[in-house]
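Researcher: Let's try something more involved. This one mixes different molecule types, so please make sure each is placed in the same coordinate frame as the others.
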Amino acid sequence: MLGLVLVLLLASLASAHEGPPYPVIVDEPHGPWLLTVWADPDVGRGTFWVQLEEDGSHRAPADTVVHVSVMPADGRLDPVTVLADPEAWGSGQKHVAYVDFPTREFWTAHFVLDSASTGEHAESVVNIEVTPPGYGTIDLLIYSWPFVAIGALWIHAIRKRTRMLAAERLEQEEAAAADAAASHDG
Amino acid sequence: MNAAPSERLTSRVAQSSASSDRPLDLLAVPGLRSLLLRRRWMQGPLLFISIVLVVHGFAGPQLAPKNLATLVGWVHSRGLLVVGLLVMGNAFCMACPFMLPRDLARRLHAPKLAWPRALRGKHVGIALFVGVLFVYEWLDLWASPSGTAWLLVGYFALVVLVDALFKGAPFCKSVCPIGQFNFAASALSPFEVVARDSDVCASCSGHECLRGSESSRGCETNLFLPEKAGNMDCTFCLDCARACPHENVGIVARLPGAELSEDRSAAGVGRRSARPDLALLATVFTFGALLNAFGMVSPVYVVQQQIASWMGTTSEGAVLLVLFASLLVVEPVLLLGVTAAISRRAMPRREPVVAVAARFSHGLVPLGFGVWLAHYGFHLLTGLWTFVPVTQKAVADAFGVALLGAPQWDRGGLTTRAVQPIEMGMLLLGAIGSLGVLWAIAKRQAPERPRAAFAPWGVLTVLLLAAAVWLMAQPMEMRGTFLQ
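Model: All components are placed in one shared frame. Result:
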């Protein structure tokens, strides 16, 4: 129980910069666009999901193009720009961009939205921390030892109980046999 | 020679509490007893939450991660349900919100019919359980707030309909798919509702735990407490504890999983070996866990495309039907059949392969529970606080004022990095439990050659564990987030 409580407490401390994708921009209005961006910035390959939702006052033009540029926050490298691929997504639009993050540090991500048909243009910028991806196999094996220890105790208890029940059963059978023999003799 | 009923009764209770001298009894903890016996404080809030989910599901934003129906309904409730089973017992059934409208309906219309004998097993519940899994994948319910709301409404309607017409608790015992899931999983729970003192039961003539008293109804799932063994069919409603005039009912700590290896005749349930429907439930529970997790990972789309091109169809329902038939029928039949055929060679009495498979299928339940825990635990822990901004937004939308503050969209949960070891640990623990239970079954079924009887089942467990580890290592859809 204590472990469970600790885990839940830790959850509130964990900022969303490490691990699963997390929102970096939510419901930011830009002209016809209502912009939401989720990021999974792992060292190696990072992913951005750019979502353009629709509501009463926002309807993304069908020809919307999304570019994502990333560069280290300290500006020591030139920005790298990729075109986000549109994907089918409910009633709005979703564009997915994959970028390379060679180092663990803060990076600046720059999102540019354009529509040729309407001439609309919008930009948004955020800083994000790029972190290593998840565990390797060896790490997982190391972290599994508490579970193995509990499992060993469990197996021990099951075996003990099995032996106890078998002994009880044998005792009952012997008693029944003795009763039967006594009644037969009588 | 048969023992007299009173001796048999005493023996049952003695066995039930024989694991240690004074095990922890939750109903003996000061303050906790009155809290647990008053069920309404749990049911009321859950009913309120259910109504909120339905209303938000229909009227709220139809984007799943911004809707409480899909978020709380699929991410939080399922995770909390399995955690409850892991740390205590059938906690969801104890707090079941469906019981309030059901009890109200029964006041308006007392049931008069008896539940048909042909439907008394678990088959209806198992079919509905598989049906829910199928519809969940087919209609993408996790991404459909209104679909989820309709499912909840349908659930309430079915409870009221069944239990307003039929006496007893046929919905809980035979129909409810969540209930059947809970019954199967609660074999791994650390607590069980039992009679505290066998002597008190032996001298009791009222049998209020079953028949009810003036102040409380008795067990509606027909579990006569002195002869009850295990958590099967026990909803932890504690009607027995309220009805017992001797305060002889406890929620007592026990060895998780032990009941799976035993074959005692239990009140209201009978012997496991005489209940093929329970073996079917164990099988569907275990292989359904793998199937449900498979539906979450990227390779499933490749498999679906292959099936679709092989069938020459674009119908997702038809493809899913083939997938379900393969993983929930063909695969278990083949794996359990072959394993049982090898295992039975070590047994003194050559039973039919089906009977051997049925006996040992219960031993796979711990692994199945490990998979459910890893899967639902992943969603719960990685999306733990996501309900906060969604609730804040729902309240702001409903009242026009941000009564709970501006939505804190950065509220997430544990990182994947933190959750991964827990996931793998749960799988490992489940597999270890399965090995222990299967060994105990092998000892009972083949006392002369337990190792030979156990070995094929051990291999099968390791294979299923490997499949589960592979599944959990795949990129999993972040359901409950914007990325689904």
